[in-house]
Design goal:
6 helices, RNaseH-like_sf, Nucleotidyltransferase, domain 5, DDE_dom, alpha+beta, IS_Transposase
Length: about 150
């Protein structure tokens, strides 16, 4: 789990994201505050949809620990200097699209964009370093064919 600052119409908001061990975005949530109440709401939403985690890797932000104490899974939290890198690096594709769109004007558009961007990115995200060029092109073609079938085009 991780959060990132996002400016919406000049006002600071927080994008909370849950990422699995492979880098796929599981859940995303936009709030105006970065406190225990927001972390608790996000954690409950995530566990309701995806079940209780075996291990929950976070940064050392205090609201995470407070929220996990309320839920009763504080012993499953792991914090460390570089443990959270998968979630931190997962913000980069979002930041590139945000810059291209010239930021956001409303919180609702940010929430819609994040939901769509995460699902599209998860569908096309191929770990290129694990495949040869021919296998990568084949996997990308299969993903694109599935996307076209899903979109009805």
């Amino acid at each position: 789990m991780d959060e990132v600052f996002v400016k919406v119409n000049g006002e600071m908001h927080y994008l909370w994201r849950a990422v699995d061990h492979e880098g796929e975005v599981l859940e995303r949530f936009v709030t105006k505050r970065r406190d225990r109440k927001a972390a608790l709401k996000f954690l409950r939403k995530t566990t309701k949809r995806h079940g209780r985690p075996h291990i929950l890797v976070t940064d050392k932000l205090r609201p995470y620990g407070a929220a996990m104490t309320v839920i009763g899974c504080a012993e499953k939290q792991e914090t460390g200097r570089w443990i959270n890198n998968r979630a931190e690096n997962g913000h980069q594709p979002f930041r590139r699209r945000e810059r291209a769109m010239l930021r956001f004007r409303r919180m609702r558009t940010l929430q819609i964009f994040v939901a769509v961007h995460a699902s599209v990115h998860n569908h096309f995200n191929q770990e290129r370093h694990l495949y040869s060029r021919s296998n990568f092109k084949l996997n990308r073609a299969v993903a694109l064919a599935g996307w076209r079938q899903f979109g009805g085009a």
